[in-house]
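Consider a protein example.
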Amino acid sequence: MQRRQLLKSTAAFSAAATLSAPALAQAPRKISFLTWNLVHLESHIKGWIQGFTSARPGVEVEWIDKKGPELPVYYQTQLVAGTPPDVIDIQGALGLEYAAQGALVDLTPLFAAEAAVKGRYDQDYLSNWVFEGKNYMVPYYVSKTLLFWNKTRFKEVGLDKPPTSFDEIMAAADKIKGGEKTGLLTLNFDWLYWPLMMTNGVDLLSKDLKTATFKTAKAEEVLTRLAAATKSGAINSISWNGRWVEPNEAFATGNVGMLQAHAPAFFWIKGKGPWINGETLGAAQMPGDWATPNSHGLGISKGSKNPDLAWEFVKYLTDNDVATKLARTASVLTGNKAVDQATLALFQKDDPLAYQVLKTQVEHTDKMCGNWRLGNDSRVKDAFWPEFQSAMLGRKDAKTALADAERRVVRELKRA
């Protein structure tokens, strides 16, 4: 079954959920918490849960953790069964899809009643889970893309600062290539490559999200240049056929000039690349300050039997105390403005390179792209990406790829 069909089949369960104090008083005081690949934080999460339940006699919280590929399937299965986890940790635009299909509680009335809670979050990150004017999730831990640059590779070709335009990116990549060296890598999943398009003024959709706008002469030029650079070795082809491990691993070798990725990549490549330090690695915004977010948010299942308790748990996990513990334990930013300011101050003192990376995550948050508020994001992505990839790998010319992508994207927009 398709995700839309699976979620529609749970409508009867969803209708019963309300956010009222009497409902909480009458229902069993137990909720479940589904997280996305956080088993490495087991002792900490169990400690935070204990802190929540110890202050609320009779309350129980069941913690469930699933790996990335397993979580959506598990959640959909539980939706069909009428037993969805009460609080869910979801990455990227999946929260929008679940919201569009009726699986999540609308948090807008709760924010209206508790303005201070809404105010604790960075509003730009919070807005990534607004669908049709309503809030469905809150930030749990946040990130967006930036440009890592290898100072050693740059110095070898007479460059001493990061590129400030797309042309400079392409020129630097071309200078650095040669032998085992390549100039540029990018992550490609979840639209993370889109800053390369947006810095050229190419957007996927119109402001109302109803019309495809990417089939332009400029887009054709950009795809043609990227494909030619890939063929020449200036851009590492792993950019288009890798996912997470492969591009990061390639950059960690020290043979690549630039990596366009989100902040979590830093801690991965730092552990793999002994060459990485403040003298050899730089962190900068992409030209135009464009970045694609890839954050995790917390939402409440509409099928929750205890939605009020679930909301209390969401607030608890993202308050200053617990969010600070998460930030310091996992070296992440949380979207809680006060916590992130304090976290950055600590990194500035203790790990200046990590600070340089992480501070990009709270700068220019109004320039985030590749985050269209679509209820069918995955289908639109699956329509566009294969055609883009075909152009990058030389299977199609840019004009043909864009035309084919437009037909496929338009079809998905009509189906929405």
Summary: The chain has two domains: 3-143+294-360, 145-292+376-415. The mean pLDDT is 93. The first strand starts at residue 30 and ends at 36.
